[in-house]
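Weekly modeling sync, notes
Attendees: S.R. (lead), two postdocs, one rotation student

Agenda item 3: backlog of single-chain predictions. S.R. asked that every request posted to the team notebook include the full sequence so nobody has to chase files. The rotation student volunteered to paste the first one in as an example of the format we agreed on. Action items at the bottom.

Example entry:
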Amino acid sequence: MQLSWGRAAAGAVILLCVMTGCATAPTSSEPTPIPSATETEPPPPRAATPAFGGDCSAAMSDSEAAAASGTATATFSSDWAPARTAGGILCRWDIGNWGTFDLTVYPIDVVPAHIVADHATAGCNPEAADEPGICSSALSTPVAWILIERIGGEEVLTQLPTGFPDALRLIATRLEATGAPAPAERADTWWGDVDCGPFATEVGVAERLGSDFEEGYPGDAMRHIATVIADESGFVPSCEWYGYPDGWGAAAGVTMYPGGAPLWDALSAQMTGGVVVDVAGAENAIAWQEPADATTTASEGVLVTDGVNVARLYLEGSAVDAPAFAAQVLAALAD
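Predicted structure, as returned to the notebook:
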């Protein structure tokens, strides 16, 4: 009988062990594999915690705003949604006669030191030729900076309304009860810092305003302090330029909302008469135009988002297509 190679080999091994003695290998179980550490996604960036949850009515009622401003009535009229990304809130009440009562609150760490110092003393600035009269008073707490202002109106005030001190204390007490405000944590997908000088070159400002354009805008003095804080803290940065091509005034500006996609509905709702347009690199874009009249030049602008960030840009006195300008802005910010 013939053995297969396999059976013959097995018999040879058995015979060899009988002749020489073979140690029996100890039986051991297979080693238990060590589980690898589970890779987890990093937590998403922390969302903002706006003062009073972004709800102006939680800060003051209409009657309390009237008492603070020293007016017969005050009617809530608007808030400024972009302040919320920085943990802030800007609330405005109409007090009649083209006057307003404004409340601004930001996390204390967001407000630049020079702004806190500039508002350390309460008082009134009489009405000037290029801006309304303003009475203001501020209060710093361990967690927030609070500013109340009475702006404009037919009555030019030289003394602070008597209701201001009580109003500040009331707001601070309510804020303590509702919790400390905090800015949003910046994500990698947010637009970074922008230097308006090089940025002007990247978006072709000279092509629109002439080579001798200047940075800024003649109406800078009219900027609300809430927008200045949001700009300087990097949560709502902006760049503006102006020039006089062909002897006529022209201007361009870009306001950026890094991580501002959640603000799209609130911002787009302000675009009265806007129409949806196509902009290269944009997920959504709305354009508007305002024709020239006896006192103003023609202007056009675009509100645009890449799905994460939002930009609002405008052109005044320029025939260049605003959607094309928006495409250049998006391309520059994406780099």
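Discussion: group reviewed the output briefly. The radius of gyration is 32 Å.
Action items: rotation student to repeat for the remaining queue; S.R. to check formatting next week.
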